[in-house]
Amino acid sequence: MDRGQPKKPQVDYLRYSGLAFQLVALILAGAWLGDWLDGRMQTEHPYWTAAFSLLGVLAGMYQLYRDLTKN
Q: Helices 9-41 and 47-69 meet at what angle, rounded to 10?
């Protein structure tokens, strides 16, 4: 794409909707892994689920930050 031309709105829409799906996928993957570990280790409280869900959120926010700061 030429630097003189403005971006098309469809490109931005696809870019950000892709980021939304990535964020949801990271959170769901973390929650699934945490739930699996909680069941495997037979923990009384869902510590692993909370930890890996939070890790998914942080990974998603990092991915969002990287994408928004990319030129």
A: 160
